[in-house]
Amino acid sequence: MKHFVLVVFVLFPLLSAFAADRPNILWLTCEDMSPDLGCYGDTYARTPHIDRLAARGIRFTRAFAESPMCAPSRSTLITGMHTGPLGTSQMRSAHPIPTAYRGFPAWLRDAGYYTTNNSKTDYNIFAPNFVQTAWDESSKTAHWRKRPADKPFFSVFNYTDTHQSMTSRDDYDAFAKKVQSRLSLGEIHDPAKPARRPKPSTGVSANKPRSAWAIGNSSRARAWRASSSSATRRPAWWARSFTT
Q1: Span 210-239, average pLDDT
Q2: Per the count of CB atoms within 10 A, which of 45, 104, 161, 170 is most buried?
Q3: Alpha carbons 151 and 128: distance in angstroms, whole number
Q4: How many CB atoms lie within 10 A of CB 115?
Q5: What is the rounded average pLDDT of the residues 2-18?
Q6: How far apart are CA 189 and CA 44, in angstroms?
Q7: Is 0.90 surpassed by the pTM of this model?
Q8: C-alpha dihedral (15, 156, 29, 243), degrees to nearest 10
Q9: 172 vs 22 pLDDT, higher one
C-alpha cells in the first residue's frame, strides 16, 4: 500500500484581503513528501521557498493523513468527511455519495468566492456535477487572476513532481529531465555521497509508514544497487532532490 501524505500551505490573507471576513486564500498541495522539508527540521532537504512560506505563516506539527492512499485522502480533503462513513476507503472505488454532499469549495462559492482548481481532482467519489459545483474553473489554466474584480478567491494549485508515480516509476533519464534540469548544480545532492538524513523534529508518531527515501535505502534496495551494472539507471528515488 502506497504511503501518501499531503503537505498543504494555506495563506490568508494573500496580497490584500477582499474583506476582513472573506480573505483571499491560496492552497498549495504537494504529494508523498512526508515532513521532508527544511521548515520541519530536515537539514538534508533543500526547500527554501516553502521554508519562507512557513516562516511567514502557520506550521502545523500534528497533521495526519486520512488514508495511506492518494485518492481516498482527496475525498476527505474535498468533503471534510472521514473515508469510512463516506464509503471512499477503497482505492479507485469511485464510490457514489449522496447528492446533498458537496465539495467544500461549493460552500465558498455560495459565500461569494471565486474558486479555482489547477488541476487535479481524482476524488475517488461518484456524484453528478460534483466538480462543476465545487469550482468556477478546474483546469490546467485555472487561476485566481481570472476572478471578477468584486470577488475574493479560493485557489488551489496541485504539484505532482513528488507524487510516488513520478519518483518510483520513471527511470533516471526521465527524472533528470523533469526535475534535475530545473536545478543548479549546487542544488543537486551527490548520489555517491548520500547523507544520513536526520529525523525531522515534527512530533509526528515514530511508527508512521516509511517515506520513499527510507524505502529507497532499505537493505533490499541497497542490494539491487550493488548488483546493477549501470549507475545511470538508478531509479528516481536514489538521487531525488527538489528545490521547491
Answers
A1: 47
A2: 45
A3: 26
A4: 26
A5: 44
A6: 9
A7: no
A8: -50
A9: 22
Domains by residue range for the chain, with CATH: 6-159 (3.40.720.10), 171-238 (no CATH)
Q: Give the chain's mean pLDDT.
A: 78
Count, residues in the chain: 244
CA dist., res. 160 & res. 20, Å (int): 33
Element (H, E) at 67: none
Q: In terms of Cα–Cα distance, which of 174, 155, 157, 154 is closest to 166?
A: 174
Burial 44-63 (b: 16+ CB within 10 A, else e): ebbbeebbebbeeeeeeeee
Amino acid at 158: N
Active site residue ranges = 70
For the record, the C-alpha cell of 172 comes out as: 533516471
| DSSP letter assigned to residue 46 | -
- Unique residue bearing C-alpha cell 490573507: 13
Q: What cell numbers appear for 183 in the block?
A: 536545478
Mean pLDDT of 46-70: 89
C-alpha cell read off for 31: 504529494
SS3 helix, strand, coil % of the chain, rounded to 5?
30, 15, 55
